[in-house]
Please model this.
Amino acid sequence: MCGIVGFTSESMQAAPVLLQGLAKLEYRGYDSAGLAVRDGSQDPVVVRAKGRLQVLEEKTNGGLSLPGSCGIGHTRWATHGEPSERNAHPHISEDLNVIGVHNGIIENFSELKEKLQRHDYHFYSETDTEVAIKLVDYYYKKYKVGPIDALAKSMVRIRGSYALAVMFRDFPGEIYVARKDSPMIVGVSSAGTFVASDVPAILQYTRSVYYMENLEMARLTPEQVTFYDLNGDVVEKETTQIEWDAESAEKGGYEHFMMKEIHEQPKAIQDTMNSVLSAEGRIDLSATGLTDEIVRDVSEITIVACGSAWHVGMAAQYVFEDLTRIPVRVELASEFRYRKPILKPDGLVIVISQSGETADSLAALREAKKLGVRTLGVINVLGSSIAREADHVFYTLAGPEIAVATTKAYSAQLIAMDLLAMHFAHVRGLLDDDALAAMIAELQSLPSKVEQLIENKERIQWFASKFSNARDVFFIGRGLDYAICLEGSLKMKEISYIHSEAYAAGELKHGTISLIEDGVLVIGVMTQNELYEKTVSNLVEVRSRGGYLAGITSYGHYEAEDTVQFTVYVPKTDPHFYATLAVVPLQLLGYYLAVARGLDVDKPRNLAKSVTVE
Ligand code: F6R
Model:
């Protein structure tokens, strides 16, 4: 997500250090950047720029034009408000009393904003960060307390995740930090003290860091760092010596971005859910502009996307049709635009895209708009072309994805589509309040279930080592399980270069079964109880032709082991949500096969992260 760097020193100029630190965080993705630097007790100077860090560097002559030895810097990946100079951090209170940068998402920011507006606060940006900074200012002035107390009071009121680095006008040379559910580290060196959202930002200056825990705060002066808990009591902490090199530090200690992003899935899911779940546990889609009236009037849904996003559409088709009884059609964007599509005027076209820039998906969106049909984008990159042009947007909050093979964005898209389907069903009277509440509760259990699956990754690694020389692999499943197979197969072939195909299990015997011979790996996905036995029968057909069988099913289906030679169990959940769980072992399998074959996991040959040509 976004990047934070802060530095305070007795004599070293801060701005060049901050810019160097931000440059080390560029790999995380961003759309704007900014700095605030203070020279002694003078007012801080704030410089912000949209676009590349280079623009900020040019504006400040590489930082040299900003005198002062205390400052904070930020690279922003937009979540609230479009990418723009106005929305870039640092954000300031009107009198420059408090100035700060923030990573994370403040869920109750509208409520806090209204409270502050009642106290005569005005807002110049659309960000949740400006609200947080002004909340700190409000408590600082109202209670006439010190920075730590003002931060603590704000932390009690803020719901969501944050890593905050703040400067107060009355405390020159000092930086204050607060953290909850968003990483933050503090570094110490003879030159001064540092704060950063990630180790690479400060690695060239120090390897001695403190990891901040949830609900901790810190005060940085040029000579020392003091940590506090929420009560304002001092907390003693030990430094950690970073042993990694700069490259592995960027990957947070993981060998590849893909593995890091697999581990980020619980958070991507949670953040996406939290963005539309109200404090009362209801789904609130008001930010998308989809009113209940619109939802009630939709007569058909067409989902358009490419690659993995299309696989999300395939999974969503089962969920939507089952819950809402609205007919759903899923189309490859590259086909849709040339097919002279016939769409009903009261239909809804949903375009799913991580980047929001995929050429075919964008063209499909424009085609739908030309036909006068309402469009909804399910998009990860705020302010991207599809997000700007669609009539309605549901943002997934997966953060920037760096590995070419999508993992966390796919998972966030699945959750977004589940939430949409549940909301549509509720508004249309097909899901009552209790049933909706039960589904939401189950949805909220998914992040920890995904975590549990990731924890068991060594077993998948072992299995992958056995099949690293496989030539062909088949994935079979029915219903939602077929959609999961599509993604499992793509994950395998795109990074491990092993040929694989996903087949609707019942379709195999209509031709493809002739490819099964001794030792060919066939993976059956069997999460849907009512289809379980049917897929098992198809697996038996494969086994009798010499295939080696692996299966993915839910805990309890232990009889699967009578049929398949290797079984992966996923925790039980609502049948509509199994894609979120079953895809994890398949992502891990693709990953470990690629690693075992010594391939470039994050940048597979011939592929680009964002496909902006037809
Ligand atoms: C596969 C993958 C691609 C994308 C596809 C669409 O791992 O990442 O198949 O899903 O290129 O990209 P977006 O979602 O950006 O439109």
User: Anything to note?
Assistant: The chain has a mean pLDDT of 95. DSSP finds 19 helices and 25 strands in the chain.
